[in-house]
Amino acid sequence: MKKVLIVLASLFVLTGCGVLDLLEEQEPAEGRELVTIERVVDGDTVIVHLEDGTRERVRLLLIDTPESVKPDTEVQPFGEEASDFAKEFMQEGETVELERGNPERDDYDRLLAYIWVDGENVNQLLVEEGYARVAFVYEPNTKYLSELEETQEEAKENEENIWSIPGYAESRFYEY
């Protein structure tokens, strides 16, 4: 037992800075909270567990992705790709940062939020890659609207994914 403690103490001394850095990384940025990803439902909806253990369905603010799992709706172009991209960034069991909207809930009682992974806004990444369009803009939930709109313009210019089909994103994904 004594040898184990000596080895652990040595490892702590050798990696002390790294351990402290790891602990600091678990502190959320101001206005955010840590949540654990249960699963990604589709490109713009995820289920998380809050720190108190509460399970919440989260709708990503200010974006809309093509449907991939909506009942009685065909899978829309780029719907599966949007979902896969979201799953890549929000992996099951991963701890991420969640920034709640104001108001916090939509008409379906989903928690409205931005999700941050390693300091990156997942909502914005989906727009940047052309898997989401800016949508459902309701005051006062517009904190990152200008950044998202700028990102969307770049995705449009580059004809990224949903923007590669003329008129598709503007149709709310229903005419294709």
Automatic annotation (TrEMBL):
Keyword match Hydrolase: yes
Record key words, sorted: Endonuclease, Hydrolase, Nuclease
Alphabetical list of SUPFAM superfamilies matching this protein: Staphylococcal nuclease (SSF50199)
InterPro entries reported in the protein's UniProt record: SNase_OB-fold_sf, Staphylococal_nuclease_OB-fold, Thermonucl_AS
Annotated Gene3D superfamilies: 2.40.50.90
Domain TNase-like, first and last residues per copy: 31-165
SMART domains: SNc
PROSITE patterns from the UniProt entry: PROKAR_LIPOPROTEIN, TNASE_1, TNASE_3
Top-level taxon of origin: Bacteria
Pfam entry (one): SNase
PANTHER family per the UniProt record, alphabetical: EBNA2 BINDING PROTEIN P100 (PTHR12302), SERINE_THREONINE-PROTEIN KINASE 31 (PTHR12302:SF3)
Name of the protein described by the UniProt record: Thermonuclease family protein
Phylogenetic classification of the source organism: Bacteria, Bacillati, Bacillota, Bacilli, Bacillales
